[in-house]
Every structure is written in C-alpha cells, then in structure tokens.
Amino acid sequence: KEREEKEKLGHNEVVEGEGEKPDDVVEKHGEDEDIEEDHPSVDEPIDEFDDNVPFVPFSDEDNKIFDASREARQKYEEIKTKMDDIDRQITDAESFSNLDFGADFAWAPLKGKCVELESGEYVYKLCPFDKCNQKEKNGYSETNMGTWKSWEKPHSSMKYGDGTTCWNGPPRSTVVDVHCGDEDALVEASEPGRCEYHFIFRTPAACTDPDAEEVVHSEL
C-alpha cells in the first residue's frame, strides 16, 4: 500500500512539471536574476561614508559644554604647572638645607652657578654642589664627570662621583681643590688617573674673613 502511494505521488509531480511551458520556465529564471541584481553581492565594497547624509551642527548647549570643558582643562594645566613648580622649590629647599655652606653660609651663593674652562680639545664645567661636566669644544653632548657627594676636606676640597662610566673602566669622578680668589673661576683641569679628574677652583668664598681673623688675634 505504501508503495502504491509513493508511485501516485511521483506521478503527480511529473504531471505538474509537464504542464509548464518553456517560456514560463525562462520567465521564472529571469525573475530570479532580477532579484539577485537588486541585492549586491557581499563581496562588493560598501561605502561607509555616504555624502548624502545631512550634516547636523552642534547645538548651542553642546557648544557651551565644549567651551566649559576646554576652560576647565586649561585651568587644570595651569594649576598643575604651579604645583610642579612648588614641588621643585620644596625639593630644592630641602636639598639646600642639607648642604654644608659653612658657619656663615659663605658658600651658599655658589649653589646654582657654573664656571667653565677651555683646556686642549675640551671644555670643562664645574657647578659647585651639583656636578662636573666635560665636552669637546665643537661638540654639544656633555660627559658627566661626577655629581656632588661631599666635602672631602671641610671647605677646601670637594668630591664628585658616580659619573659616566669609562669604557671598560670605573665611573668618572672629580676632586675639586678650592682656593681663595677675587672671582669665581675654574683655573685648572687635569686627569691624574684613568677616569679620575682634578680641578682647581678659585672663589672669594674660600678667602678668610678679615673680621674673623681680628677676633681670633684679639682673643689670643
């Protein structure tokens, strides 16, 4: 019985197909092609920016918000800059207070100053209580010859260390002998040992105070 029903169904399908004309089949295929043309292939590029989309300007309320945000950012940057300056001043003040400028602070004016000396092919720089540098006369980059460490001898010899490391050698270091002079001047620079430098620095700060000498003599 099932076999008979399947044969009947198959017969009906054949009969339905026989009723179609060739022109009808072509017309149906044409409709399918029209449908495909209306829908572009996925592989075709899609323009993400349509020129026909109208431009919508910002409202007055939006512009006010943007202006307020810009002003707030500007004020923030100004306050941040001032705070950074204050932090630097505090750091400098703390560092300044920890330095030994002598009983009468005679050496304090040297902090922040630098003196230079041209010798041979190099220019040497001394910044008391800060660093020692060296560079070629026609060069721009400086070599660190040491940063301030301490008085090697109280108020007569300065020690600078942990400078730029020499090739296959130790970090550069400098000893600065200080002598009395009419003005601040770096008068001599030498390298007695590998990566070890020696400066002679003259300054009024190293001169004995005549008033102090009179007090000492009167006490004697």
Automatic annotation (TrEMBL):
Start-end of Basic and acidic residues biased regions: 1-31
Every MRH domain range: 112-209
Region (Disordered): 1-67
Xref: Pfam families: PRKCSH_1
Gene3D superfamilies on file: Mannose-6-phosphate receptor binding domain
Signal peptide start and end residues: none
Annotated Gene Ontology cellular component terms: glucosidase II complex
Alphabetical list of InterPro entries matching this protein: Gtb1-like (IPR039794), Man6P_isomerase_rcpt-bd_dom_sf (IPR009011), MRH_dom (IPR044865), PRKCSH (IPR036607)
Keywords on record: Disulfide bond, Signal
A GO biological-process term: N-glycan processing
SUPFAM superfamilies: Mannose 6-phosphate receptor domain (SSF50911)
Protein's name according to its UniProt entry: MRH domain-containing protein
